Structure formats: C-alpha cells, structure tokens
C-alpha cells in the first residue's frame, strides 16, 4: 500500500470576497478572473454561485461590505498550490478559503433531498401553527379591550353619578 496521495483531481470548494471598492460589474470581472485561473490550471468548475454584496462579519482593510462568490471545482493538488499563491497576491480579493469537498453519490443526494423536503414541510407546518396562534391571541386581545373598554365607561358613568350626588343640595 502506497503512502502517497493518489494522483488525479480532487474536488474543492472556494469561497472568496471581492473588495467593495469595486462596482458590481467590476466585481464580476474579478470573479471571471478567478474562474479563468481555475480553468487555465486544467480545473473543471462544477458549481458557480454568486451571492452578491453582503455585510462582512468584521471590517477587513477598513471595508464593511464585500461581494461573495462560491465555486466548486476539480483540480490537481499541484495546481491548487499555484492557485492559492495567485489568489494570495491578488489585491482585489479581501479573503478566500479553499476546502476539500467530499463528492456525494446520487443516492446520497436523493436522501438529502428527501430529508430537506421533510424539514421544509415541518417548518411550513410550524409557521401555520404560529400564525393561527397569533390570530387567536389577537382575537383574545380584542375581546379583552372591549371588556376593559366597557369597564372604563362604567367607571366614568359612576364618577359622574357620584359627582352629581355630592353636588346635590338636599343630601340631608
């Protein structure tokens, strides 16, 4: 058994943030540049998600916002090191992270889709239940306000009657 890593491309995921100094169109050209770096290194991009402009968790180089991009790709290990070095030297990218991603079989993907569907259904049921409870609470509040409104008018009428009695001349 060999202790060396098997040759061939591994599956990776990269998430990077482009500086907010650029407009959205300029940020997309920066994203295209990274995509070109991957494909020139004989990499194959399997997923491309542009997340848009988002607030950073903390300021990076005095910037609070950045444009997020996610790629999943297949690339050889030697080429990954070169890609990493090129991204480190790129001044347009504030931060990036590359992680090894485990490939999922079709069976696993179907299983996860079923689980996600169940979770979504449960969340929808919870939201319906929550809305119905809120409606019930609102109805109870309306009933309470009408009861308390009647109580206020009764107290006001009692106050008027008491004033009338106290101001009457023939008390004794």
Model description:
Residues 120-153 are annotated as: Disordered. GO terms for molecular function: small ribosomal subunit rRNA binding; structural constituent of ribosome. By secondary structure, the chain is α+β, with helices and mostly antiparallel strands. It folds into two domains: 10-103, Alpha-Beta Plaits, CATH 3.30.70; 108-167. 53% of the residues lie in helices and 28% in strands. It has three helices and four strands, in the order E-H-E-E-H-E-H. It has helices spanning 24-40, 77-89, 106-166, and strands spanning 10-19, 44-60, 63-75, 93-100. Strands 2-3-1-4 form a four-stranded antiparallel beta sheet, with helices on one face. A hairpin with a 2-residue loop joins strand 2 (44-60) and strand 3. The protein starts with 9 loop residues before the first strand and ends in a 6-residue tail after the last helix. The model is unreliable at 1-5 (pLDDT under 50).
What are the SSEs and their pairings?
Elements: E1 10-19, H1 24-40, E2 44-60, E3 63-75, H2 77-89, E4 93-100, H3 106-166
Antiparallel strand pairs: 1-3, 1-4, 2-3
Brief rundown of the structure:
The protein is of the alpha+beta class.
Give short descriptive properties of this protein.
172 residues; alpha+beta; Alpha-Beta Plaits; four-stranded antiparallel β-sheet; disordered N terminus
Which shape, going by the Cα principal axes? elongated
Q: What is the number of independent domains? A: 2
> What is the CATH third-level topology name of the largest domain?
Alpha-Beta Plaits
Report the mean per-residue pLDDT as an integer: 84
Can you give the helix content as a percent range? 40-55%
Number of strands: 4
Q: What CATH architecture of the largest domain do you see?
A: 2-Layer Sandwich
Count of helix runs: 3
Reading off the top of the CATH hierarchy, the class of the largest domain is best stated as Alpha Beta
Strand order of the largest sheet: 2-3-1-4
Structural class computed from helices and strand pairing: alpha+beta
CATH superfamily of the largest domain: Ribosomal protein S6/Translation elongation factor EF1B
Beta fraction? 25-35%
Write down the secondary-structure element order: EHEEHEH
């Amino acid at each position: 058994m060999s202790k060396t890593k098997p040759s061939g491309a591994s599956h990776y995921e990269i998430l990077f943030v482009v500086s907010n100094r650029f407009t959205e169109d300029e940020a997309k050209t920066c994203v295209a540049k990274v995509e070109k770096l991957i494909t020139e290194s004989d990499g194959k991009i399997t997923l491309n998600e542009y997340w848009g402009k988002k607030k950073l968790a903390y300021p990076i180089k005095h910037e609070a916002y950045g444009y997020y991009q996610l790629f999943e790709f297949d690339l050889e290990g030697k080429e990954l090191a070169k890609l990493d070095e090129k991204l480190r030297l790129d001044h347009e990218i504030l931060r990036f992270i590359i992680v090894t991603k485990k490939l999922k079989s079709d069976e696993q993907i179907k299983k996860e889709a079923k689980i996600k569907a169940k979770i979504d259904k449960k969340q929808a049921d919870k939201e319906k239940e929550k809305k119905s409870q809120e409606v019930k609470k609102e109805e109870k509040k309306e009933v309470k306000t009408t009861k308390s409104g009647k109580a206020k008018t009764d107290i006001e009428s009692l106050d008027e009657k008491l004033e009338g009695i106290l101001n009457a001349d023939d008390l004794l």
